[in-house]
Every structure is written in C-alpha cells, then in structure tokens.
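Hi there, hope your week has been kind to you so far. Thanks so much in advance, here it is:
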Amino acid sequence: MVSDEHRARYRSAAQIRAGGAIGNIFDGPQITVHGLRTLVLAWPGTGFQTEAVHLTIVEPDQSSDEYTYDLSEEAFLCRHGEVEVFLRGGWVTLRPGDMAYFPAGVPHAIRNRSDRQAYLVNQICPPQFDLYADAGLYNPAWGVMNDSAVHKAKINAEPLDVGELDEMQYRDDQPEVRAQNLSPSEVTAAGALFNVLEGAAFTGIGLPMRLVLWPGAGTRLVGFNYAYCGTGVEDTIHTHPVSDEFLVLWSGAGQLFVGDIGWVDAGPGDVAMAPCGVMHGHRSTQDLGPSMMGGFASPPQLDLVIPTDYYDAGRFSHPADTELTGTQMHEADQ
C-alpha cells in the first residue's frame, strides 16, 4: 500500500523533481485538451520538465479537434478500446499495444468510431504549456505554473473508475504505416505506427526489453521502452542524466523503486515518476509473479544506448525489430 506522502497528488513539483513520486495512469487532474477529456499525469505541475504524459479519454463517436505542434513531438499508446488517428495521410487504427508517433509539424486528429470508450496514454516532448492555461494551471502572461491552482487540482482529482482493461498485444496489421517497414528518415518526416512488443532488443539494465521509440527507429524527442520482468527478476536501479521518466507497470504485479521513497508494492497502472537524476527501477517477486513494464522517457535515453552496438560517435544504427514475446519471456522466467 502506497502511503499518501509518497503519492504524486500530495507531493509538490519541487519534491517530485528532487525525489520522485508514485502515481497511477488513471489518477490526475482533469482538463480538456483539443476537445477531449484528459487527465494530466506527469507535467510541469508535477516537476517534469522534459516531457508531459497525459491520459486521453475518447468516448464512442467522439473526435478531437485537428491540431499541430510545431515544436513538440507526440506519441499515443492505446491502452484500452480502439481509436483511429490521422497519420501519414490517412486514418490508422490503434488497438491496445499500438503506438502512433507524430513528429513536430505533423497534423494530429483522433476519432472513436467504435461503441466503447478508449484510453490513450500520450507523451508530449517538450511539454505544451498552453494546454494548461484554460484550466487556470498555467499563467501565459507571466510564463509560470499557477502553483496554488495546481496543488488544489491535484488534491481534489477524482481517480478514473475503470473496469477490466483490454490486453496489450503484438500486432502487425496495416503494414504500410508500421515503423518496421519504413526507414528512420521516413518515420522522422511523417510519423509511423509502432507496437509496444516490437523494437530493438536491449538487456542493458538486466532484463529483456525492447527500445520502441528511440532515434534508431526515427523518433527524436519522445522515447519509450517496454520490458518483461520475470518472476524473481530485478532490473538495475538506475538514473538518467537528462531524461525525465514515467515508468509504468502495465500488467501483473511487482514493486517499484523511486528516489527517496524506496521500494513499494505496485499493481497495474501504477507509475514510478522519476524526473532526471532520480533513481528508479522495478522488480517482480516470487509471490507476485511476472509483470510487463514500460517507460516514457524524453529525450530518449542516450546513456542506455551508448554502450551498445547501436551507437557509434553520434550516429545510430537501425537494427531489425524483433517481438518481445514467447521464447525471450520464458527464458527470462527460468
């Protein structure tokens, strides 16, 4: 059980910036962003400086405004339900486990043509401060966060009541827009469709994982990796010099390590909020079994990639993407 003093809603931005916090992807102040109901999770109001992470709720037959960020990149992870996004000149379907990447300057649009509510976890890098102005959380005239309003909004936020969530799965449909079928330069120019279970293999922190959104695949500012934490497996407790990280336990159960908090039990949707310089990690125990973990980090974590064969003197290679499933998971669980 996470004590209130360690939860993001009760910690100031300065406290989170210095020592981290425990959050949840369904717990944050609610605002409206581009016409859609949105929970703000990691953002300047919680001490994050290099990225913002939100939960976007898309109702049946609902559509967003069309919008473009000339400075920021954005990525959407479909956690539940089904939506369509306008990407690479057409409407692309996102199902649980799929991710859509939008470079700066590329128009966005979202629509839900299904009969079910959908949840998208989206990352924006760098944060778009103006998104918080209409709710009174940011003062554009002075260029500062409204700390009193932020504190009140966090304390009084109503966690989203969700039922059973769809499982995030490997998918390779819509091959014409899948990142593994495009060059990095094509991804950089117009975006692409990714999947959390496919990417460049990496074991640099002690467990099987995939680098999904990273410069080797064509993204520049947003970053995401996904990992399998087998029973009894613990990754290397680590920090990142310049990347803020939002590390989510997507499924299963385990423990999160965060900064000045230490180890805490965690369940699906719980988050280690670790701004740059804050120690963090995760593990599964014999009692709790395996779990799937994944982190939004911006900018992408160069400190992880430098020791690999994917990087040399400022240049990234583009290794073949492989699926994180089956053999790799079972071997890790032995």
Remarks:
- Confidence is low (pLDDT under 50) at residues 326-334.
- The longest strand covers residues 244-252.
